[in-house]
Specification:
The complex is a heterotrimer. Chain A is of the alpha/beta class. Chain A contains 11 helices and 10 strands. In chain A, strand 9 and strand 10 form a beta hairpin. The two termini of chain A are 32 Å apart. Chain B is built from 12 helices and 2 strands. Helices cover 76% and strands 1% of the residues of chain B. Chain C has one domain: MetI-like (MetI-like fold, Orthogonal Bundle), CATH 1.10.3720.10. Chain C is 76% helix and 0% strand. In chain C, helix 3 crosses helix 6 and helix 7 runs antiparallel to helix 8. The chains are: A alpha/beta, B mainly alpha, C mainly alpha. Chains B and C meet through helix 1, helix 3, helix 4, helix 5 and helix 6 of B and helix 1, helix 3, helix 4, helix 5 and helix 6 of C.
């Protein structure tokens, strides 16, 4: 076991007077897929949102404790939240492409960092073919192409990069969101039930993509889908009523859990 | 460097927007202050009971100008009450139709149409009142001309009705679906459901709508200017000509010498109107915790 | 089915009410056309006003005046209104300043138009020394349109789904970047609808402009914003109530008809945009 990429220490979260998370301590290893499982309201999504400080967006939310990313505390007061979110990306439950073209969706994260196309390229004037874009030496183009490839979407969209993202199917849209997230080259990817609204085939595509991506990124996924966790996660953490009940390698957690509560959950006795 | 730039811009923009938003508060305060500022001369010189309780308004008299607004206030009162008597039921029933009875298609067509009524400028309604409604009413009731409180009220009702209908419709459609289902499941008919379940449930919104209509009617100027008859005596019946407070301001402000007592007295009337509508709005606020809805 | 008769009575009453509303609208349009349709000729629309011989003149100046006022009002109040709306939906939290601003907006919307006219007279005409002018009228009417624009813009911006903002923030965007790259483009059409409707309503207001700059006697067109001006609603009013010519009221109706057509045109554009937004159904 190497030093974990992320270390959470005694993280607590309140929404107003209600305590949603009661002191969670958990290491996340680099280049692994870690799954958070648990019933609704167990706090797993809340915990996920601490890693990129999206928990700040909830009104009256308060977080305590520390989460170390490469030694720096993410929950600290002086943390540059904007910079943090470029290192820790997030995907949501329903695919949320922006009302823009496919190209612009992927390029969004880069444009807000000030990146622009080379002067020779005026996107709104030229209709460029897939080959043009592929062969282009423009930095922005190259990142867009690579991201779409890594998200296993390039072949399906290369001929309609200028088309609206809403023309894509649900599964494609979610892969677009993955491409958009990895375009900014984060270290960590957080996914909150990314497949819950997708059909089994799209789910399978996404799971394959995630497995391919883990060599480059560290992935944390919240899921209700226990078989999914068994399929793709290296490590799993089980949450219940705001507490971390048990965590460890997926194999051990599912086959020989140490807590009865875990046993009950993974065998489907409640959920 | 870029990150610093975008952070700087982000910070400045939030200041800009906060500043712009505060402008509205400043504006409202400013209006109040300017009204007071210009009214203070009259308020200091003329005893309050002479203003509020006297029915004689003659600011330009040579011998002794008098500033009693009672007749004017009664004019406003008659028109407001009468128009609300028509506009409120009309608006409420229309709202019920839109919210509970109309098909989706009908609603799509009808709602914008009713909004368009709100878009008819009141000067146009005043004109039509002059040309058509007044002569007709004069004929029916054997009057010399039809320029009186009744005619004006009917037209003010038209102007007030859309906002009442709109707010009532919002209140009704915001009621949870379950209310209706529960009532139907108990065997109640549509009308009973509406009357006994929905209307009581929406009562604060509906009361708010009435208050809103009240405020709108109080502030109506052009219609009353054109068809209410312009008489300064105390109105005794619906068929009397009246001159409400709003019309008084509009008619006389151009002739009043800036800064004179007459000018100041007109601002007193303006101040009274401002405080009236402010008070009504606060009541509506308490009744209806609504989002910004004008 | 005796028990259902009172039921049906009530429902029919409601239908009658709705029907009445539509009839009122139709009656307004039809009566206006009857009263004023005959005077609408090309020369009526394009000639300048002749006091003594109103048959030979036209309302061109009034149309231009109203147009300038309408456009000016939107140019002034739309940025301010949109800015306030952005503050309310994107920046503010549920605290006292926010409720105060919302209260102020609602109350501003309820102030009678004469009172706003009084304020305009005291503040713009005399206080800031704009004089009776287009500028004073534009400024005064902007006070009226501000709450309308804010209300419409808030609604438009709130209808942009929260998840768009979340996704943008999750990618490391600042608040302003999220606003101008995602929220504004998505909500702009709705905001514009509000602006167009407010413009139409402002053009129909008479009482405030009586007090701050509208006139009936003008040769030629206004040259600058500090000139007095003719406007359709005021023109209608004077013709209807104070002109001695036997045909005056027909010409009043003619002016009113032109005003209504302009209002109608603007409203239709706004409704059209709103319909397009609704059927777009993208999110």
């Amino acid at each position: 076991m190497h030093t974990p990429l992320l270390e959470a220490h005694d993280v607590k979260v309140w929404y107003g007077a209600f305590q949603a998370l009661k002191g969670v301590t958990l290491p996340i290893q680099a280049h692994e897929i870690t799954a958070f499982i648990g019933a609704s309201g167990s706090g797993k999504s809340t915990f996920l949102r601490c890693f990129n400080r999206m928990v700040d967006r909830v009104p009256r939310a308060k977080a305590e404790g520390s989460i170390l990313l490469n030694g720096e505390d993410v929950l600290g007061g002086e943390t540059d939240v904007i910079a943090l979110r470029r290192r820790v990306g997030m995907l949501f439950q329903n695919p949320v492409p922006f009302p823009k073209s496919i190209y612009e969706n992927v390029a969004y994260g880069l444009r807000i960092q000030g990146m622009r196309n080379d002067r020779g390229i005026k996107l709104w004037r030229q209709r460029r073919s897939a080959d043009d874009v592929e062969a282009s030496e423009d930095a922005l183009d190259q990142i867009v192409v690579k991201s779409l490839r890594d998200a296993a979407l390039w072949d399906e969209v290369k001929h309609r990069l200028d088309a609206s993202a809403y023309g894509l199917s649900g599964g494609q849209q979610q892969r677009l969101c993955i491409a958009r997230a990895i375009a900014v080259k984060p270290e960590v990817l957080l996914l909150d039930e990314p497949c819950s609204e997708l059909d089994p085939i799209s789910t399978h595509h996404i799971e394959e993509t995630l497995i391919n991506l883990k060599s480059t990124y560290t992935i944390v996924i919240v899921t209700h889908n226990l078989p999914q966790a068994r399929r793709i996660a290296d490590a799993t953490a089980f949450f219940h009523a705001g507490e971390l009940v048990e965590h460890g390698s997926t194999k051990h957690l599912f086959e020989s859990p140490q807590q009865k509560l875990t046993q009950d959950y993974v065998s489907g006795n409640f959920g | 460097m870029r990150r610093f730039q975008s952070r700087l811009i982000d910070g400045s923009m939030s200041v800009v927007f906060a500043f712009v938003a505060v402008l509205t508060v400043i504006l409202l305060l400013g209006i109040f202050l300017f009204l007071v500022f210009n009214a203070v001369r009259a308020l200091q010189t003329i005893p309050l009971q002479d203003i509020l309780l006297s029915a004689n308004w003659n600011p330009v008299s040579y011998t002794k100008p008098v500033w009693g607004i009672l007749a004017l206030a009664l004019g406003t009162l008659i028109i407001v009450l009468l128009s609300l008597l028509v506009a409120f039921p009309l608006g409420l029933l229309t709202a019920i139709y839109l919210s509970e009875i109309a098909s989706v298609r009908s609603r799509e067509i009808l709602k914008p149409l009713i909004e368009m009524i709100a878009g008819v400028p009141s000067v146009v309604l005043g004109l039509l009142g002059l040309l058509f409604l007044a002569p007709i009413l004069a004929n029916i009731f054997q009057l010399s001309n039809g320029l009186n409180a009744l005619t004006a009220s009917m037209l003010v009702a038209i102007v007030t009705m859309p906002s009442i209908a709109s707010l009532c419709e919002d209140s009704l459609s915001e009621l949870p679906r379950g209310l209706r289902d529960a009532s139907f499941a108990l065997g109640a008919g549509r009308a009973s459901t509406i009357i006994h379940v929905l209307l009581p449930a929406a009562k604060s919104g509906i009361a708010g709508a009435a208050m809103l209509g009240l405020g709108r009617a109080i502030g109506e100027t052009m219609i009353v200017l054109m068809v209410a008859g312009n008489s300064l005596s105390v109105p005794r019946s619906l068929f009397d000509a009246v001159r409400p407070m709003t019309a008084t301001i509009a008619i006389e402000i151009k002739e009043a010498v800036t800064g004179s007592m007459h000018w100041s007295a007109l601002f007193v009337i303006g101040l009274i109107l401002f405080l009236l509508t402010l008070g009504l709005n606060i009541i509506v606020d308490i009744l209806v915790r609504r989002r910004i809805h004008t | 089915m005796k028990r259902h008769t009172p039921d049906r009575l009530f429902l029919n009453l409601c239908r009658l009410a709705a029907f009445l509303c539509v009839s009122i609208l139709l009656a307004v349009l039809i009566l206006l056309i009857i009263a004023g349709g005959s005077v609408i000729t090309w020369s009526f629309l394009t000639q300048t006003w002749q006091h003594q011989a109103i048959e030979s003149g036209g309302i061109a100046q009034a149309i231009v005046g109203s147009a300038i006022v309408g456009i000016g009002v939107v140019l002034l109040s739309f940025p301010l209104g949109l800015g306030t709306a952005i503050y309310l939906t994107e920046y503010s939290r549920e605290n006292i300043p926010k409720r105060l601003i919302e209260l102020a907006i609602r109350n501003l919307a309820g102030v009678p138009s004469v009172v706003i006219g009084l304020f305009g007279l005291a503040f713009f005409v005399h206080g800031l020394k704009f004089g009776s002018s287009l500028l004073a009228a534009i400024a005064t009417l902007s006070i009226m349109t501000l709450p309308w624009i804010i209300a419409a813009s808030v609604e438009a911006l709130q209808s942009v789904p929260r998840k768009f903002r979340d996704s943008s923030f999750a990618l490391g965007a600042t608040r302003w970047q999220t606003i101008h790259r995602i929220v504004l483009p998505a909500g702009l059409q709705g905001c514009l609808t509000g602006a167009i409707i407010s413009m139409a309503r402002a053009m129909g207001e008479t009482a405030p402009i009586i007090m701050v700059g509208a006139t009936f006697y003008l040769t030629g067109f206004p040259h600058s914003l500090s000139d007095r001006f003719l406007a359709l609603p005021y023109h209608t009013f004077i013709l209807a109530t104070q002109h001695a010519h036997p045909q005056a009221q027909s010409y009043a109706a003619g002016s009113a008809l032109v005003l209504m057509m302009l209002t109608f045109l603007l409203s239709s554009v706004a409704i059209g945009i709103r319909y397009r937004i609704r059927t777009r159904k993208v999110w």
